[in-house]
Design brief:
Blueprint: E1 19-21, E2 27-32, H1 52-68
Antiparallel strand pairs: 1-2
């Protein structure tokens, strides 16, 4: 049986408002991200289930920020 992975190490860098940051660390206007497309929360290894809290939290933050900044 093959090992199938569903994650990415690296990815988009976000701030505490779930805004995607450019290479200079500046927020990109109207661009938000959450979940496995983001980086920096798990370190060098993936631990199944540990990112669910981050997915839920930053998904909520991203939605609220996007709605507030239409």
């Amino acid at each position: 049986m093959e090992n199938l992975y569903h994650l990415t190490f690296g990815g988009l860098v976000i701030n505490t408002n779930a805004q995607v940051l450019d290479t200079n660390g500046n927020a990109i206007e109207h661009l938000y991200a959450a979940g496995d497309v983001t980086s920096g929360f798990e370190g060098a290894t993936h631990q199944s289930g540990d990112c669910l809290t981050m997915v839920l939290y930053y998904g909520k933050v991203a939605g609220e920020q996007a709605a507030a900044n239409e």
